[in-house]
Amino acid sequence: MKKIETQIYQYLKERGWDNLAPANIAKSISIEAAELLEIFQWTNNSLEETKKDTQKMAEIKKELADVLIYAFDMAVLLEIDTQKIIEEKLEQVKKKYPAVLMRKNAKAQSGSGASSEYLKIKNDYRRKGKS
Ligand SMILES: [Mg+2]
C-alpha cells in the first residue's frame, strides 16, 4: 500500500469509517465533484486565467482534495490498487484517443481537444457500449 493510501486508511480507521458502504462513498464523490463544478458556474476562464486567480485556486484545491479523498476512501476500502487502475485506464484512453488526432485539434480549440474527432470517437464508443 502506498503512502497516501496508508494515511487514508489510518484516517478512516481512527474515526470508525472503515466500513462505509461503497454507494455512500460514490455519492460523496459526486457531491464533492459538484462543489468543484460550482466554482466554475457562469465562468469560462482559461487555464492561465484560472491559475492567476488565487482565491479561485484556493477553492479548487479544497474541493479537489475532497474529491480525491473520497476516491481514495473507496479504493482503500475496496482494496483497489489505484496505481494499477490508473495506468490501465490511461493505456485504454491513449488507444481510444490517439495523440496525433487529438493534438491536431487541441490548439485550435484552446482546450481539451474536444473537436469533432474527439466527439466522433467518444460517440462511437458509447454506441458500442464501452466506457
Ligand atoms: Mg467540499
Description:
5% of the residues are buried. The mean pLDDT is 91. The protein is built from seven helices and no strands. The protein has helices at residues 3-15, 22-38, 47-52, 54-77, 82-96, 99-109, 116-128. The chain starts with a helix and ends with a helix. The chain has two domains: 3-81, MazG-like (Helix Hairpins); 97-131, no CATH class. Helix content is 76%, strand content 0%. It is an all-alpha fold. The structure holds magnesium ion. The site of magnesium ion has 4 residues, from helix 2 and helix 4. One of its GO terms (molecular function) is nucleoside triphosphate diphosphatase activity.
How large is the share of residues in beta strands?
under 5%
- Number of spatially distinct domains: 2
How many individual helices? 7
In this entry the ligands are:
magnesium ion
Output the structural class: mainly alpha
CATH architecture grouping of the largest domain: Orthogonal Bundle
| CATH homology superfamily name of the largest domain | MazG-like
The percentage helix is over 70%
Q: Roughly what is the average pLDDT, rounded to an integer?
A: 91
H-E order: HHHHHHH
Pfam families: MazG-like (PF12643)
GO molecular function: nucleoside triphosphate diphosphatase activity
InterPro entries: dCTP_Pyrophosphatase, DCTPP
Protein name: Nucleotide pyrophosphohydrolase
